[in-house]
């Protein structure tokens, strides 16, 4: 405050003496600060990922389309660094930095929920048939214990095997190699 008064007083004295005052330097304020950008990314893997919904995984993503975040131009192919983090119902990708031309810049962005599902590797036809066979064998065993094996015990056991097999399959988040993951800056 005191320096502003001295500066103003100096300018007034110089102006009254006919000497032009030198303008104070102006501070440049970025005008195009972007706070809510979206980044279209994809995983940098050739294989499908099956990620447990209760574990964090560090992975890099590849930027699929050019975008600008806080005045920084991010070209296609920029590397987004971060991890898949557990949240209720699946995982969320949380980015902490981006690599552009061998330089690393901080980045705060996250995906929406990547929902979990029953592990498709354990719910395919072969696994269902196997669970049904185990259940049917259990039905036969129960029938023999009770003294009479009948068709309904075998069918009931097979159905129970399928239900139990599907129920006990673990939940995972499936990420395909070409799947787009949209991140939103925070």
How does this model look, in words?
This protein is of the alpha+beta class and 186 residues long. The chain has two domains: 32-117 and 171-185, Type IV secretion system, VirB10/TraB/TrbI (Lipocalin), CATH 2.40.128.260; 124-168. Helix content is 30%, strand content 36%. It has three helices and twelve strands, in the order αββββββββββααββ. The protein has a six-stranded antiparallel barrel. Strands 2-11-10 form a three-stranded antiparallel beta sheet, with no helix packed on it. 17% of the residues are buried.
Helix content: 25-40%
Number of domains: 2
What's the total helix number?
A: 3
Q: What is the structural class?
A: alpha+beta
The CATH level-2 architecture of the largest domain is identified as Beta Barrel
Biggest sheet descriptor: 6 strands, antiparallel, barrel
Strand content: 35-45%
Q: End-to-end distance, in Å?
A: 35 Å
Radius of gyration computed on alpha carbons: 32 Å
Order of helices and strands: HEEEEEEEEEEHHEE
As laid out across the biggest beta sheet, the strand order is 1-3-6-7-8-12
Task: Look up the CATH topology of the largest domain.
Answer: Lipocalin
Tally of DSSP β-strands? 12
Outline type: elongated
CATH superfamily of the largest domain, please?
Type IV secretion system, VirB10/TraB/TrbI
| Spans where pLDDT lies below 50 across 5 or more residues | 1-14, 21-33
